[in-house]
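ingest -> validate -> predict -> emit
validate: passed (alphabet ok, no gaps, 219 aa)
predict: started
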Amino acid sequence: MPAMPFQRQSAPAAAARWFADAAGQAVLASEDAVVQAVARERPGQPWLWFTPLPPRKVPPRALCLWPEGEGFSGSLACTLPLPLASGSVAAILLQHVGDGCLPMDAVLAECERVLVDGGRLWLLALNPLAPYRLRWAGAGPRTAEPITWRWRLRRAGFEVASVAQGLGPRWQVALAADAQEGAGIRAAFLLEAVKRVIPLTPVRLQPRLRWQPGVPTVS
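emit:
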C-alpha cells in the first residue's frame, strides 16, 4: 500500500514550538502521570505513544513518534500508513498530536488498525473552553471540544468513556498534576477509549485510568 501523504502545512511545527515554550511545557509536565499510567497498562507488551515533541525519556516498550516534516520521527521514521502489523500494540497514547492539525481521521484509522482487539487508547487534547487558551491563541495549536473528539473516535471504531477528565493548569503557567471529573476550565482533557468489538450485550465504557500526583517529569 503506498504511503498516505500529509498535507503540507506549518501548523504541526507551529504547535510544536508552542509546546516547547513554558506554557506548553507546563501542560506536558502536568500529564506525566498519564504517560506513566499508560506504560503500566499492559506490562511486557509494546505500546504506541504519539507526542508533540521528542520526550526527555521514553518508557520501556514504548514506540514513541512525534511529527516531523510530512510524517513522524522517533522510534520509527515513517509516514502513514504506519509500518506496523495490524493488532501489534497493546495500548496507544495520543498526546496533543490532534492539536497540531495532523490528518486525524487517517491517524485514528491507523490507531484502530494497529491496536489489539479490546485495547485502550488515551487521547490528551487542549481544552478550547479553558482560560489558558489565551496562552496558545494564534500560536499554532488548533483545538476541539471533547464532544468533537468523541465523535471522531466513535467514527474510527472506538467506544469512548462518557466523561472526560480535566487536567493541567487553569491559568497560571505551573504544573498541576491532579485531575478532575469533566474538562471544566483545565488547560487539557483526557478521553479514554477502547477498540470496538461486537459484544453479546452492549457495555457502556466508564473511565478507569487513575494516577497519583507527583510523578517525575518525562515529557
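The CA atoms of residues 23 and 62 lie 26 Å apart.
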